[in-house]
Design brief:
184 residues, alpha+beta, Metal Binding Protein, Guanine Nucleotide Exchange Factor, Chain A, seven-stranded antiparallel beta sheet, 4 helices, disordered N terminus, binds zinc ion
Length: 184
Amino acid sequence: MKKSTLIICLFVTGFTISCGWVQEDKTGFQTEPAESIVEKILEDPVNADTIEVALVEKTEEEWRSILTPEEFHILREDGTEPAFANAYYDNKEEGIYYCGACGLPIYSSKTKFDSGTGWPSFWAPIDPKLVKRGLDERSGMERTEVVCAQCDSHLGHIFPYPGVPTEERHCLNSLALDFKPQDI
Ligand SMILES: [Zn+2]
């Protein structure tokens, strides 16, 4: 474990113990294993070592003041937008996808692929440290939910998907993302 990662972990752990989470159901969420094959496969479109992950915590009122009602529903109330009626499912531009709540760069066009599902789909984040995953049983079935590592905002779910390098598909909501074109 890198020193910087250790510091982040200690900070997050300490903060959790002292302050608790705004969203209680995200308590058990964890980042992906550091030995993820993603790191070996992906040519970094941005240098992940330069991306600092710091805890971002706001009140519901503060989130409502910076997000549209639609964004708030997806990001802070774990909503799902309609398939094929969202901004990025068919976006083929090169660039970076940022968390729509806190602005952390989390996915890139390098790992985006056409899943045919109607939602933007990626086979990996830019770096495993940038997202957390946990069990979601809210809909009566077990699914893996993926949230932003920095602000715990809901991004979407992760499903098995044979045929891509990680054999998994990060099925995200466009409203949870901000895309900025960039040559990568
Ligand atoms: Zn975020």
